[in-house]
Amino acid sequence: MANSHIGSSFDDFLEETGVLAETNAVAIKRVIAWEIQQKLEQEHLSKTKMAQMMNTSRAALDRLLDPNNTSITLHTLDNAAKALGKTLRLELI
Q1: Which residues of the chain have pLDDT under 70?
Q2: What is the span of the domain harbouring residue 39?
Q3: Which SUPFAM superfamilies match (predicted)?
């Protein structure tokens, strides 16, 4: 019996099982949360100070830093980028 998955990619498998979009969203969010956390540590910024720089609440920043919470807005991402001296760039491929 031939294996129908030989030669296919892991992305193909995830797409077939219907979890590709969710998996990609979680992966992207984890990278963003990690990068922001690294910047906070490098700059010795507290969460309270970062929230003030973003003009948001500490709770909103905690959601942004939660690697499993993918419910963030572009506005929040843009504010975080600006607060860290970066720009947000999105791309559809």
Answers
A1: 1-7
A2: 10-83
A3: lambda repressor-like DNA-binding domains
